[in-house]
Amino acid sequence: MTGHNLIIRDYLHSSGQAKYFNTTTRNIVVALLLVILILLRIEHHPIPLLLSTTVDNSETHALETHKDSIKGNQIAELKKLSLFSAETADASDNPYRVGYLAADDPLLFHAPPSNLAARVVGILSSSIHEKSITIIEQNKYQSSYSQGEKMPENNAVVIKIFDDRVIINHQGYYESLLLD
What we know:
Layout lengths: L1 H14 L7 H20 L5 H4 L6 H12 L2 H10 L36 E7 L8 E6 L2 E6 L3 E2 L4 E6 L3 E6 L2 E6 L2
Antiparallel strand pairs: 1-2, 2-3, 4-5, 5-6, 6-7
Helix pairs in contact: 1-2
GO biological process, one term: protein transport
Protein name: General secretion pathway protein C
Keywords: Cell inner membrane, Cell membrane, Membrane, Protein transport, Transmembrane, Transmembrane helix, Transport
């Protein structure tokens, strides 16, 4: 800090202001200047509100223009594609949502087939459903699961094991894996 003090002292002497600044004041000024320089190196816009005082509505205008250019039949065609692995466009109408059916509901037996790349190769059924075991093959690797266990490859959870099918919770919906 002494090098900075010499530069500032020489500047103040040359401009005739040395009598107004003592050593403590010079040290405070140097410290403040260093803090400002450090802040400017860290954050290029320390006061962003002062840099842009105008409101930019170009993004919202572009969104409105794009929304107006989409036709109704194009939206219907996109919904038919089911791009995001949702079985139905209106998820609220699907009775197989988790939370809509209880785990012991008889309708659960009729859950729609799953699209997962997994298949049931064996079931050891028990009169006590909690003690039933299923063998599921995924990526040519077989693992055994009981109720409540998570399948690591696809984050599905085994909900109930019947004699010929396994009901899983996959992405918030009940789906069935049938025994081959």
